[in-house]
Specification:
Radius of gyration of chain A: 24 Å
Oligomer: heterotrimer
Largest sheet of chain A: 2 strands, antiparallel
Strand content of chain B: 5-15%
Order of helices and strands of chain B: HEHEHEHHEHEHHEHEHEEHHHH
Helix content of chain B: 25-40%
Chains: A mainly alpha, B alpha/beta, C mainly alpha
Distance between the termini of chain A: 33 Å
Number of helices of chain A: 15
Number of strands of chain A: 2
Distance between the termini of chain B: 29 Å
Helix content of chain A: over 70%
Largest sheet of chain B: 6 strands, mixed
Strand order of the largest sheet of chain A: 1-2
Structural class of chain A: mainly alpha
Radius of gyration of chain B: 22 Å
Order of helices and strands of chain A: HHEEHHHHHHHHHHHHH
Shape of chain A: globular
Number of strands of chain B: 9
Chain lengths: 323, 382, 287
């Protein structure tokens, strides 16, 4: 399905006047709005009305509830351990404990590595399917999406079985001499990253595939005439035209990887705890919802900063593209 | 089919008005002002409610760990009484309480001893008149401890359901015989393949017992010693995991802290069961039990009583023990359980094993609970 | 689960049409390995769902006992029914709201548009567990008793953004002049929307509907926090069971969900053909 095949799946920043500029292929709203005669103002208002229910819904339910979490991060627990709203910074100062920082940095590291590994794996796959699979193309993409639609937990559980010491993967690697009898994948950082990659690689393949599929193949031919070697053609023609797809994929993989707790739970060891696990502990099991809320806000802040960076980047790219 | 007793405090519902106010404040972006706060509800006192009329008064809304009752036992109940069992599962005690707090009305829940105490003290449980249960005698006469357990005076709001202790499960073929101490978790031969349960009470409790300090301590000095000890164990660990029996079965663990009842699953599912051992440490082994309890907002307490009575029938107890692997304190079913654990007699729980001092208890104050929680986070996050 | 369509040998690309005449053997090899690893875990789940023994490590012999156990387990079946209900309602609700929002976002030149564009992004970066906790706090605060309804509301909230993101670029790519032409011909704004705009967006709408259905069906975190005493959605039930070790019945459930997923995708592939746009996989290729 369309898992964010839009090259900029997380929308580009809205300019103050219009939020329409998303893809380069659309008619430039500025020109259309400037010159073409507009329908009556009353007619145009319909769009505002259309946006209203969704906006109200999101504001009332989503944003308000998030603000509740934010408010709770300044709260305390009472004598019985029940969360109370308050105005204390205790939870935030608790976060200065280096242990939390370690976990946060580790999560960033894992999520980044996961995005990169996904890119490295997904690129050849998307390339082979988009440009060399002929009629099988659609079937292959569907075959990639099918497991993604099966239950995430069951998939991750199955993956942990595959990666386990007596599992088929290590068995195979041992038989061809690539792994020793003591090599293990499960309960290592490698295992957690393998879990994250398995969980989210489809988010990378789809946008890359869309970008490659959309690419004008005659460009490759022209590139070959121009540059000669396939490698140089690839680097100077194919890669640039898939940059947006790759960037979108990176974001789509990075975000869920950063918040994930299942992979570290199934595939991690004592040194692989991620921030999602800590948050989950505080809410599902711990009795410290205020501290959990503060951790959550910290994670959100990191993600928002990352997001902001990404948006600035895409905006710059777009600006460059349009001159 | 494993079990986990989680050390947490109940979270009575947030007061609606205060939350609304806080929500409004939050919405305005003024979350800092700290005006509203969540308050414990004023609970209906259990004593004001009339005794439960033991008769079918509707379908049974049941709330328990997943796979903790044999489906055929459910089927038998539904057939016999002509009611449906509406089943929900929780995956932690905390989650259970959160659902109760959210106002969900269940007819029958299965809190651990620790949570039974909290819920009973908060007035969240109905009184259960044991005289109205035909099969209760086998419980209370056979296991006198439950006549007046620490967590619920005279078991006034509960009936014990299952029991278990925490010990060490290991691979005899890899490690040979062990020494019968928690020190075995440090066995050099198991370095890199040892697991601790992913459970605050169990992990801190193990270290406390090994150090010879109070199982439920929340003293800073004690907790410091505990975290130091656990951090010393950490490099040997492969992970924190509550999936103890699968870790043993799939070969990822050669040794793991384990719940006694889970060893039955190991025995039943292993290719060669003889390579597995289970021991309780001489420094002491935590003991625990779960209860049947009826929340004060239950809509069909009569059906719940009937269900408890039905579950206590020895034939059903045996069926259930075979299904979940955990023993139940019902006199007359001991031999069936002993047969079930066969080669691992240490899994058997005798009445003399039930000592209040080896139960996980509720910390006295929030600060105590949070000190323990912080110590656990410290261990886990490294 | 031995679907392994690649087999290391894709069909020969048609020369000339697809330009790149040299086979990228490296990419093809990676793809082959990728498919093996993609399906291996699922293969294990499916394999052990047919195990005659209650073991996840030792395969004894073929048996359908876990499937039979599933189909006789009224709890799991009612959970399945609940999941289907929740997914369908969430799908319908979020598609209606999301499509309207996407249209509004792209076309409205008002402050509301920029505000909506901003808040719509937030769910996309919010970890699920946060959404879950936040929803629970909110429902408690409003004094709403948790029920299937609260799950549906939470799931709709979580899904709107996805629909909007998918639809947004499609809406932007539409040529407004076509609608305006329709209006010049006497259509009202609503008519042109209904007769011109929506049909053009149909493949994207269907794609987002399928995606939302699958996401909601699969979601356990949000549902975990917001379910009441009604039967729990299937994914929640799986989560409760999986934390302490998997039951073979869960393998059977997982395998059936995979089957459902295959059917769903097949359906999604089939639908656009009925509507005759480029045929095949517009929705997969993303326009």
């Amino acid at each position: 399905m369309d898992l964010g095949t839009d090259p900029t799946p997380v929308p580009t920043p809205m300019s103050a006047s219009t939020s329409a500029s998303t893809s380069g292929s659309e008619p430039k709203p500025g020109t259309a709005a400037g010159s073409a005669p507009r329908p009556s103002a009353a007619g145009a208002r319909i769009w505002t009305w259309l946006a209203l229910p969704g906006t109200v819904w999101m504001s009332v339910i989503f944003i308000a509830s998030l603000l509740l979490v934010a408010a709770l991060s300044f709260g305390t627990t009472d004598a019985l351990g029940d969360p109370r709203f308050g105005a204390t910074l205790v939870n935030w100062t608790a976060l200065t404990d280096p242990a939390y920082l370690t976990v946060l940095l580790r999560s960033l590291e894992y999520a980044l590595i996961t995005s990169l590994v996904c890119l490295v794996i997904a690129y050849p796959v998307a390339y082979a399917i988009a440009l060399h699979a002929g009629r099988l193309k659609n079937a292959l993409i569907a075959a990639i999406v099918v497991p993604f639609f099966a239950n995430y937990l069951v998939r991750m559980y199955g993956w942990s079985v595959v990666l386990s010491d007596n599992g088929p993967l290590l068995g195979f690697l041992r038989s061809i001499g690539l792994a020793g009898s003591h090599t293990k994948i499960l309960n290592t950082g490698f295992g957690v990253i393998a879990g994250l990659v398995y969980g989210f690689v489809v988010f990378m393949i789809i946008p890359l595939y869309a970008a490659l599929e959309r690419m004008d193949v005659s460009l490759i031919e022209a590139g070959r005439d121009l540059y000669g070697g396939p490698l140089r053609t690839f680097l100077s023609v194919t890669v640039p035209s898939t940059r947006q797809g790759a960037a979108a994929g990176m974001v789509l993989v990075f975000l869920p990887a950063m918040g994930d707790f299942v992979s570290a739970q199934f595939m991690g060891g004592p040194n692989q705890i991620m921030i999602g696990n800590l948050i989950q502990d505080k809410f599902f099991e711990g009795q410290n919802w205020p501290l959990g809320s503060a951790l959550t806000m910290l994670l959100m802040a990191v993600l928002l900063i990352g997001m902001f960076g990404y948006l600035r980047r895409t905006r710059k790219d777009e600006a460059e593209a349009t001159g | 089919m494993s079990y986990q007793a989680l050390p947490r405090s109940p979270r009575p519902p947030l007061s609606r008005r205060s939350l609304l106010r806080a929500g409004a404040v939050g919405t305005l972006g003024l979350g800092l002002t700290g005006c509203g706060f969540m308050q414990a509800q004023t609970s209906a006192s259990d004593d004001t409610q009339p005794p439960i009329d033991v008769k079918v008064d509707g379908d049974l809304v049941y709330f328990n760990w997943a796979d903790y009752v044999d489906p055929s036992v459910f089927a038998g109940f539904q057939k016999e009484y002509g009611v449906k069992v509406v089943q929900s599962n929780f995956d932690s005690m905390e989650g259970m309480v959160a659902k109760l707090d959210a106002g969900n009305s269940y007819d029958l829940i299965f809190p651990s001893a620790k949570y039974t105490q909290r819920l009973a003290q908060a007035g969240r449980l109905r009184r259960i008149d044991h005289a109205k249960l035909h099969n209760a005698d086998a419980v209370f006469s056979g296991y006198g401890y439950f006549e007046d357990p620490w967590y619920d005076a005279r078991s006034a709001h509960s009936v014990p359901f299952t029991m278990y202790k925490t010990g060490i499960g290991w691979r005899k073929d890899r490690l040979g015989n062990l020494s019968g101490s928690w020190q075995d978790l440090w066995d050099p031969g198991a370095s890199g393949t040892a697991f601790l349960l992913d459970d605050e009470d169990e992990a801190l409790g193990m270290a406390a017992l090994k150090l010879g300090i109070d199982l439920n301590t929340s003293q800073k000095a004690d907790l410091d010693r505990i975290t130091t000890l656990l951090k010393n164990l950490r490099p040997h660990l492969r992970g924190f995991s509550s999936d103890d029996y699968n870790n043993l079965l799939n070969g990822n663990a050669t040794i793991t802290q384990a719940w006694s009842g889970d060893m039955v699953s190991v025995l039943n599912q292993a290719k060669d069961a003889s390579v597995y051992g289970f021991e309780v440490a001489r420094e002491g082994s935590p003991i625990n039990s779960d209860c049947y309890a009826i929340p004060s907002n239950a809509r069909h307490p009569g059906t719940a009583m009937l269900f408890i009575d039905y579950m206590l029938r020895p034939a059903n107890v045996v069926k259930n023990m075979q299904y979940i692997g955990y023993p139940m304190p019902v006199h007359g079913t001991e031999s069936a359980y002993a047969a079930l654990v066969g080669q691992l007699p240490q899994c058997v729980i005798s009445p003399s094993d039930l000592k209040p001092g080896l139960y996980f208890r509720n910390p006295a104050t929030t600060a105590d609970a949070q000190a323990r929680d912080a110590a656990w986070t410290d261990v886990k996050a490294g | 689960m031995n679907r392994h369509p690649m087999n290391g040998r894709p069909p020969r690309p048609r020369r000339g049409r697809r330009g790149a005449e040299r086979r990228p053997w490296f990419a093809i090899a990676v793809t082959a390995v990728f498919f093996v690893l993609l399906y291996l875990p699922i293969g294990m789940v499916v394999l052990f769902s047919f195990n005659s023994q209650k073991s996840l490590t030792v395969f004894k012999s073929f048996s359908l006992r876990w499937y039979s156990a599933f189909f006789h387990d009224h709890v799991l079946l009612s959970s399945l029914g609940m999941s289907l209900q929740v997914s369908l309602v969430a799908m319908a609700g979020s598609v209606v709201l999301g499509v309207a929002l996407a249209l509004g976002l792209v076309r409205a030149r008002s402050r509301l548009g920029s505000y909506a564009g901003l808040i719509m992004m937030v769910p996309l970066i919010t970890p699920e567990i946060v959404t879950g906790v936040a929803s629970l706090l909110l429902f408690k605060g409003l004094g709403v008793t948790l029920s299937t309804g609260t799950v549906m509301i939470a799931e709709i909230t979580f899904s709107i953004s996805y629909v909007t993101v998918i639809l947004r670029s499609r809406v932007a790519a539409l040529n407004p002049e076509v609608e305006e032409a329709a209006m010049d011909l006497g259509a009202t704004r609503w008519q042109s929307l209904r007769l011109v705009t929506l049909p053009a967006l149909l493949p994207a709408i269907l794609a987002s509907a399928v995606l939302i259905f699958a996401l909601v069906f699969d979601d356990f975190v949000l549902a975990y926090f917001t379910t009441g005493v009604d039967p729990q959605p299937l994914a929640v039930r799986i989560y409760s069971a999986i934390r302490f070790g998997v039951e073979p019945t869960i393998n059977a459930v997982g395998s059936l969900m995979l089957l459902g997923s295959i059917l769903l995708i097949a359906l999604a592939l089939a639908i656009p053909r009925f509507f005759g746009r480029r045929g095949g996989l517009d929705i997969l290729s993303g326009e």
